[in-house]
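User: Sequence recovery, please. Input:
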């Protein structure tokens, strides 16, 4: 019996050790991906030029951009709170906001395989015993609502660009397909949220519009008056790409999207990368 207990203890210890090693390897891989992405970008855009552009920015507009970004995250936390309260997970607005910011910190800075979403799922489950499936579903639904809003806004930007005639059909079909797809996902996987689907989309649009306004403030800070819609379109697409769990906080991935798409849309690549990095720093 003692030997069995000893073997079980060793097995558990080995499992924990293997998980820690796996988490660290995942983090190292993400760091490598981010570094390679940044190196790739900087080989095509002179870093000194980026510094010069950033140094010429009008600070007041960067302050406005920062405040708009903060506002967008407060609204995003409120959207999460609506979902939690719908499932009778009682958490105060202040505690929810702190949890939201802590999740962001995990996503951006802390090493390991645990992302901010996983952290929030575990904390919600421990605090309120709501069941890991329900906790995870609440967090994932919140994220999917944000992605749906990003895609719809990106599609709506297309007709306002110089490429509208080539891709107008994508907008006309993509917008309803995205919204209907989001509704179907809610009905199938989180039926308890059916009654607030429209509300979730509404707040998701507000979140992304505030961040678009933050980008507009950055554009204004750099004195960019042409191609603003194109830059906003690139930002929306890069935000979706930055959500992929392959880098540290999306750094590098967002910059590659800005670099490649700015070239395709005939924009200043140096300026595009500077905009991306400025938003990340904010």
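Assistant: Recovered sequence (282 residues):
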């Amino acid at each position: 019996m003692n030997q069995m207990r000893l073997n079980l203890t060793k097995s558990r210890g080995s499992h924990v050790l293997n998980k820690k090693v796996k988490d660290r390897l995942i983090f190292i891989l993400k760091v490598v991906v981010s570094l390679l992405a940044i190196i790739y970008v900087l080989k095509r855009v002179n870093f000194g030029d980026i510094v010069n552009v950033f140094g010429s920015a009008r600070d007041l507009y960067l302050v406005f951009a920062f405040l708009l970004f903060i506002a967008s995250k407060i609204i995003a936390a409120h959207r999460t709170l609506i979902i939690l309260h719908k499932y009778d997970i009682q958490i105060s607005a202040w505690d929810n906001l702190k949890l939201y910011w802590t999740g962001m910190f995990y996503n951006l800075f802390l090493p390991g395989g645990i992302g901010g979403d996983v952290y929030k799922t575990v904390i919600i489950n421990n605090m309120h015993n709501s069941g890991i499936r329900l906790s995870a579903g609440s967090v994932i639904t919140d994220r999917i609502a944000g992605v749906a809003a990003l895609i719809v806004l990106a599609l709506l930007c297309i007709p306002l660009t110089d490429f509208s005639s080539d891709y107008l059909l994508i907008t006309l079909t993509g917008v309803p397909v995205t919204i209907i797809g989001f509704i179907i996902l809610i009905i199938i996987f989180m039926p308890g949220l059916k009654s607030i689907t429209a509300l979730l989309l509404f707040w998701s649009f507000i979140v992304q519009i505030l961040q678009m306004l933050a980008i507009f403030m950055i554009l204004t800070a750099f004195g960019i008056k042409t191609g603003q819609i194109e830059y906003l379109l690139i930002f929306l697409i890069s935000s979706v790409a930055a959500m992929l769990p392959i880098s540290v906080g999306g750094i590098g991935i967002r910059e590659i999207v800005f670099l490649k798409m700015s070239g395709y849309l005939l924009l200043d690549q140096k300026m595009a990368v500077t905009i991306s990095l400025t938003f990340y720093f904010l």
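The chain has eleven helices and no strands.
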